Amino acid sequence: MDKPLIIDVAPAKKKAPKHFADLTPEERIAAVKEIGEQGFRAKQLANHYFARHSDDPAEWTDISPAIAEKLASTLFPQLLTLVRTIECDGGATRKDLWKMHDGVLVESVLMRYPDRATLCISSQAGCGMNCPFCATGQAGLTRNLSAGEITAQVFEATKVLESGEMGESTRLSNIVFMGMGEPMANYNAVMRSIRNITSPAPDGFGIGARSVTLSTVGVVTGIEKLIEEKIPVTLAVSLHTPDDELRDTLVPINTRWKVRQVLAAADEYARTTGRRYSIEYALIRDVNDQAWRADLLGRMLKNKNAHVNLIPLNPTPGSKWTASRREDEKAFVAKLESYGVPVTVRDTRGREIEGACGQLAASESGKS
Ligand code: SAH
Q: Which end of the chain is more exposed for a tag (fewer CB within 10 A), N or C?
């Protein structure tokens, strides 16, 4: 049963060139044979790309130079070109702006912490979900990214972290699909990239599924499909308010799947995977931060396997909305805690480089 997602309508404008990372391990063997090389080369290539983080044929010393060149030129087209990097937080946060083969721009943000390194990646260029507080939503959807393009953002981050450019060489430990785009609206490519990320080396980067967070506006059919995949990634649901009336405006897909349906799907996800899900809630002053909303949310989430992640709104240029008052934020937290609901307030890494939530690439495309 492979129900198509009704919202899976992103136009395949200019499809990215086919890349090794678009393929399953079986397809990689077939692709290598198709260009007249022996199947075992696929494992060698996987080892170079996913385990050693090299896409440079000059470094593939277990393959003769002529064959390495041929494999690289057919299976490893350059998907991302770095346009610009901006750093902040004393070099612990960096935002990379990437240009795709067709000129489309996307961003990724790498955040280094004492105990981990987290990469925030994009799954689409733009987004079709139209949430009014999100900068990406304002520009609309340009196109889906391919699995190769999503995976390449991870590949590049692993190289940066290993190079020592961001302090002592380290591994990438966490990935969040919280950059541009709605991952459930590009389901197949996102799933393929998740397999690339989580499969043990050399078939993938070997990052644990629990360390990968997929954030969604609440596409119920997508959550249901994800349950079937049996990959226990962490699910995050961008709820932003517990009542349908306001959510119809804040997260317009709510007119299709109501709060109750979204939470039921998330509960089912938690039940089948054993994984606690997180509720994303951007606190917007006098819009969704009232005590009664905290109370309603607390009652809805009480005794559920859920955690609330409050995000101080990062105002987008020209928006009339702003972050909640400190005292309202505190009261919101206290109210949720009174119901025993675990709650955290997200840090605001990357604000000054417009790398914070919902601002990715917006300012750049405004300039071009
Ligand atoms: N489309 C997915 C993932 C991308 S956005 C989703 O909506 O979940 C990642 C998170 O950032 C979402 O929770 C989104 O609602 C939030 N976000 C977007 N714009 C924001 C802003 N201006 N301030 C705070 N959070 C924002």
A: N
